[in-house]
Amino acid sequence: MAIRMKTDVLSKQPKPSKQSRNTLSRTTRPHDLDGIPLLSILSGPARQRMLQELTEAHYSKGDFIFREGDPTEYVHIVKTGTVKCVKSTAEGKECTLKMLMPGDLFCCDVAAFNGASHPGSAQPMGDASILRMSKTAYFEMLQRNPNAAIEVIKYLGNRLNEAQEKTKDLALDRADRRLASLLVDLATRNGITEPAGIRLTVRMTRQDMANMVGVTTETAIRTMSRFKRDRLVSGIASCLLIRDLPGLKALASGSSPPQIQRRLDRSQNMKLVIFCSAASDCAYGEPSNVHEVGV
């Protein structure tokens, strides 16, 4: 998940595939990396020194940037593409912990500081370019730049809040609310506004969506079908258009958008009619074979 805070400027290995690991040249123009929040808070010599510590690697879908259990030797920054951090069970099932967008910093957070191994794996969701620097160089940069260290502290606090919120969502929220919240987050962070709505730039599979909200693929498919029926979204998982962002926000917060409320009202009315009909039949001693109907 992106590092997004109101008051801070920080906001997101089976073997890698064939990739380049060229050290960033000293001739790299600063504006080439102006989209990286961590670099934007540094200036002058501090910025140039950090640029010399960075290396760049390219990955494709199916690669691993690091595996669960690997030592935390580097801090990573997404330059281009999208990365997912996943946790796997012994049976091979996956839960996506967070998604990382360009500019996001990642290294399993606390593990980088306490020397533990990576508690999860990081995989690109397509072609991705990743900047990285050694953990030692990263810590030295924080010691030399107190402002950057303060922003990282804020970032870690935000990550903790996000983890607590995700735990609450998985434990208490319905599947449709969780999926609506995911789509709102993706649209807000990296969507492209079009006349018909907001186009998501993240290329996901239906399995990716299910893993992100902790449901089965079948449940994700049924929920997305309802969203399309209610004109909240259109398209397929790999190319989604958000047609009604306010409606998704209302659903994610626990309210029902007008179109969904109308459908629920129709459903309740149908059930009431069937119930009254059944009661009438029973009053006259006639057998009743009633099945509840949902819309």
Strands, helices and their partners?
Elements: H1 37-40, H2 45-53, E1 55-59, E2 74-80, E3 83-88, E4 94-100, E5 105-106, H3 110-114, E6 121-124, E7 128-134, H4 135-144, H5 146-172, H6 175-190, E8 191-194, E9 197-200, H7 206-213, H8 217-229, E10 233-236, E11 239-242, H9 245-252, H10 258-283
Antiparallel strand pairs: 1-7, 2-5, 2-7, 3-4, 3-6, 8-9, 9-11, 10-11
Helix pairs in contact: 4-5, 6-7, 6-9, 7-8
Give the tally of β-strands.
Answer: 11
The rough form would be described as globular
Number of helices: 10
Question: CATH class of the largest domain, please?
Answer: Mainly Beta
In the CATH hierarchy, the architecture of the largest domain is Sandwich
Order of helices and strands: HHEEEEEHEEHHHEEHHEEHH
Domain unit count? 2
Which regions contain 5 or more consecutive residues with pLDDT less than 50? Answer: 1-23, 25-31, 271-276, 282-295
Counting helices, strands and paired strands, the structural category is alpha+beta
Q: Profile the largest sheet.
A: 4 strands, antiparallel
In spatial order, strands of the major sheet run 1-7-2-5
CATH topology of the largest domain: Jelly Rolls
Oligomer: single chain
- Please identify which CATH superfamily of the largest domain we are dealing with: Jelly Rolls
Q: What is the residue-mean pLDDT, rounded to a whole number? A: 77
Terminal residue distance: 35 Å
How much strand? 15-25%
